[in-house]
Amino acid sequence: MKKIMLTIGLCVPAMLFAQDQAFSLKIKVDKIPAAARVYISYTVNGTHILDSVNVKNGQFEFKGKLSEPVQAKLLLDHQGAGQENVGANPDMTSLFLEKGIITMQSPDSLKHAEIKGSPINKEHKRYEQFLDAPKLQMSKVNEEYELATEDTKKDPAFMKGLELRFRKAFEDRKVLQKEFVKTNPNSYFSLIALEESAGKKLDVAEAETLYNSLSAPLRDSRLGKEFAARILAAKQ
Q1: Distance in angstroms (rounded) separating the CA atoms of residues 126 and 62
Q2: Is 146 helix (H, G, I), strand (E, B) or coil?
Q3: What CATH number is attached to the domain comprising 77?
Q4: Is 134 found in the same domain as 113?
Q5: Predicted confidence band at 15 (pLDDT cuts at 50, 70, 90)?
Q6: Is the pLDDT of residue 14 over 50?
Q7: pLDDT digits (tens, 9 = 90+) for 55-73
Q8: Among 10-24, 41-55, 147-161, 164-178, whose mean pLDDT is lowest?
């Protein structure tokens, strides 16, 4: 039996820039070895980008252009051994890239870095905190499964209990996501919450009501238009 985990994908809705906008990500980690290197990966307009930089004057910097915010993954290779040789517990984190200057600073690692100068990362943190309670319950279920013996995992009653608790937490998460949409009509993550909570089979009336409660810029974004198309298709 595989671990009871539902991977919830996260993509951020497009901000309608007039044209591609420049971003700069500046990372400072104190007491970093001279050989250290940071790797970054993200996707822009369907193209996967993998880049890396060496430390320079105690800092790493990435620059580029975006037509919309994107989520990026970062890996810090402290010893410069190559990303394939960073060990079983690599120093990794993720954040959203957006136009402007974003800074990250930490005394020792990417995992403990503080992000500044980025409204969308601040909003993402607020959104995740809003969903903390059910997320914690799902984590507890997965932890119990990992700690259980193989014999215990073969017990149908045990597995059914975990599944019911996980599904309950997941449904609670959907309720909170819908509440977030209703109370945050201007948040980028309201579109994310709407898309995730709607699931594959739309409740058309509910989906349309929530969608119409969003601000015009969100409805006019790429993801907003895609969700409107889903509603229209479900009506036919």
Answers
A1: 25
A2: helix
A3: 2.60.40.10
A4: no
A5: very low
A6: no
A7: 988 899 999 998 778 899 9
A8: 10-24
Interatomic CA distance for residues 226 and 128, integer angstroms? 23
Q: What residue numbers bound the domain in which 106 lies?
A: 21-117
CA distance 168 to 156: 18
DSSP string of 170-232, one letter each residue: HHHHHHHHHHHHHH-TT-HHHHHHHHHHH-SS--HHHHHHHHHTS-HHHHTSHHHHHHHHHHH
| pLDDT tier for residue 13 given thresholds of 50, 70 and 90 | very low
48-67: buried (b, 16+ CB within 10 Å) or exposed (e) per residue? Answer: eeeeebebeeebbebebebb
Return the amino acid letter for 163: E
pTM of the predicted model as reported, rounded to 2 decimal places: 0.78
Q: Domain check: are 88 and 149 in the same one?
A: no
Which DSSP symbol is given to 142?
A: H
- Residue 56, SS3 per DSSP: strand
Domain boundary among the residues 90, 117, 144 is at 117
